[in-house]
Design brief:
The chain is about 35% helix and about 20% strand. By secondary structure, it is α/β, with parallel strands linked by helices. Strands 5-2-1-6-7-9-8 form a 7-stranded mixed beta sheet, with helices on both faces. A two-stranded antiparallel sheet has the order 3-4. About 45% of the residues are buried. The structure holds S-adenosylmethionine.
Length: about 220
């Protein structure tokens, strides 16, 4: 099943987040292809917008989405930066907390049984991860260190034939930050992936060599 229901599409479009509708549709289509083959994992939950696109596909296939975030926001989400949203600050501690909004978003979309939140640093969780993934979506921290760590920690766990989807890939620096593009370049140079599709800043690669757990370069 690859059609996104009108109800879930409306929830995804309305959710707080940074994903254009056409990129969300691509993410859903990729997830729909893979969701019956094993779990989907997203790095970078934020408020759950992309998790709805993934979760809709998983729900239709009887699958599961894991979504990893410390819920304290990336550098660009902090006060004084371009993508800061003051409504996401927990006034009791003065720090970002996107977890309550994520929980409400996934509840309202009817996806609580399908989308599983993992709250923690990407590197901490990936260090303990051993499960083959049918699809990995990298949309976490966009600083070089975090983007590279997400690839190093998670990409080896994509199963043979599985998909790696990278968001915010901008070859031209005038269009956006370069770390996700550097990750895409690293993946291509590593030789374990075919470049299969691009929509906007979303790049899709398919694992063509090795098994889950093997190095990917
Ligand atoms: C661009 S937002 C994700 C947007 C989301 N995928 C969507 O489309 O709605 C990036 C998220 O990554 C999280 N993040 C940044 N660095 C992280 C890290 N090292 N470990 C876990 N989460 C991190 C931030 O808290 C933020 O919520």
């Amino acid at each position: 099943m690859s059609d996104l229901s009108a109800d879930l599409l409306a929830h995804a479009v309305a959710a707080k987040g940074f994903m254009p509708d056409d990129e969300g549709a691509l993410l859903h289509r990729c997830a729909a292809e893979r969701a019956s083959s094993g779990p989907l994992l997203e790095v970078g939950t934020y408020c759950g917008k992309s998790a709805i696109y993934l979760g809709a596909a998983a729900q239709a296939a009887g699958g599961t989405v894991f979504t990893v975030d410390h819920h304290r926001g990336s550098e660009e989400n902090q006060a004084g930066w371009e993508h800061h949203d003051a409504t996401l600050v927990d006034p009791a501690i003065g720090r970002m907390d996107t977890l309550p909004v994520f929980r409400r978003t996934i509840h309202d979309a009817g996806l609580e049984d399908v989308v599983v939140a993992i709250v923690g640093r990407s590197t901490t969780v990936s260090a303990h991860w051993r499960t083959p993934l049918s699809l990995l979506f990298i949309d976490g921290g966009h600083a070089e260190e975090h983007a590279q760590n997400d690839y190093s920690g998670w990409a080896p766990w994509v199963m043979a034939g599985g998909l790696l989807v990278i968001h915010d890939v901008f070859p031209n620096p005038a269009d956006g930050g370069q770390p996700p593009f550097h990750v895409w370049q690293r993946a291509i140079a590593g030789g374990a992936w075919d470049d299969v599709e691009t929509v906007g800043s979303m790049r899709v690669l398919r694992r063509t060599s090795g098994e889950a757990g093997d190095p990917v370069g």
